[in-house]
Amino acid sequence: MILEAWRDGRVSLVLSPPILQEYRRVGITLSERYDGVDLDPLLTLLVVHGEIVEASDLTEPVCEDPDDEMFLACAAASGTSVIVSGDRHLRRVSGWRGVQILSPREFVERYLRAG
């Protein structure tokens, strides 16, 4: 449902180069682990149709997992108010600088089914 909303222009997808690099790394790992998994078409869609922003590193640590800081930095750089993620470390910092961290289900319930 979220990808359909993105396709239909009802939501925007904002990424930074480090996030794309992380998604590529995960895609390679998944393709090595699970035969037939290929995230390249999705990654191509992200690059072509997503909004790519340059985001500076955060000036101070916010998350328990430093690898999650790139998502907060991207939100801050783009003025994004919602990050959709099931990552428990990110979810713990929901509200940082007004950025809500919502699970995919919460996002669908609050923003897609409600409107």
Q: What does it look like?
A:
13% of the residues are buried. The model has no long low-confidence stretch (mean pLDDT 93). By secondary structure, the chain is mainly α. It has one domain: Rossmann fold. α2 runs antiparallel to α3. It is built from six helices and four strands, in the order αβααβαβαβα. A two-stranded parallel ribbon has the order 1-2. It is globular, with a radius of gyration of 14 Å. The chain starts with a helix and ends with a helix. The longest helix is centred in the N-terminal third of the chain and has 17 residues.
Mean pLDDT: 93
| Radius of gyration computed on alpha carbons | 14 Å
CATH architecture: 3-Layer(aba) Sandwich
Order of helices and strands: HEHHEHEHEH
In whole angstroms, how far apart are the ends? 13 Å
Give the low-confidence spans: none
What percent of residues are in strands? 5-15%
Main sheet makeup: 2 strands, parallel
Q: How many structural domains are formed by the residues?
A: 1
Please give the count of helices: 6
Oligomer: single chain
CATH topology: Rossmann fold
Instruction: Just give the CATH class.
Output: Alpha Beta
Number of extended strands: 4
Please list the strands of the largest sheet in the order they lie side by side: 1-2
Query: Shape, please?
Result: globular
The SS-based structural class is mainly alpha
Tell me the helix content.
40-55%
